[in-house]
Amino acid sequence: MKRIIPFFVLALFLSVFLVLKSCIISNPQPENCEVVEITIKKITEGSSYDIVFHDTGTDYYYINRGLEQGLNLDSLNAKVLNKTVTLHLPKLLFGTSEHIAQIAIGDEIIFTEFN
């Protein structure tokens, strides 16, 4: 019995580690993303300099630290407000992230994290 407990503790630790690791988005690639089209109804500043895009419903998507990356809320409003955009959202272990890896309107890429 005493030998089984360390095994379960190790298995629990590895499980927690894998779940947490699957939630970290690093170097997203197009083949690991879900592509969705949404209509942007509102753009706001989120926490930590994020840019948050709200759709016609209750969903929202964000560019992580977008304001630090040189994006501007006013210019984004002029380009995408009330328009349909294409988003690349990284797939995670338990679904799809709200993190925007790429946003485009038509053939024009507004922002991308792809190399």
- Tally of separate helices: 2
How many structural domains?
A: 1
What class do helices, strands and sheet pairing give?
alpha+beta
CATH architectural label: Beta Barrel
Rounded mean pLDDT is: 88
Using the coordinates above, name the CATH class.
Answer: Mainly Beta
CATH superfamily: Nucleic acid-binding proteins
What keywords describe this structure?
single chain; alpha+beta; OB fold (Dihydrolipoamide Acetyltransferase, E2P); 5-stranded antiparallel β-sheet; 8 strands
What does this structure look like?
This protein starts with a helix and ends with a strand. It has a single domain, classed as OB fold (Dihydrolipoamide Acetyltransferase, E2P), CATH 2.40.50. The mean pLDDT is 88. By secondary structure, it is an alpha+beta fold. The protein has 2 helices and 8 strands, in the order αββββαββββ.
List the helices and strands and how they pair.
Layout lengths: L3 H19 L10 E7 L2 E4 L5 E4 L5 E4 L9 H8 L3 E9 L2 E2 L5 E4 L2 E5 L3
Antiparallel strand pairs: 1-5, 2-3, 3-4, 5-6, 5-7, 7-8
Q: What's the short story on this structure?
A:
By secondary structure, the protein is α+β, with helices and mostly antiparallel strands. It is 23% helix and 34% strand. The longest helix is centred in the N-terminal third of the chain and has 19 residues, at 4-22.
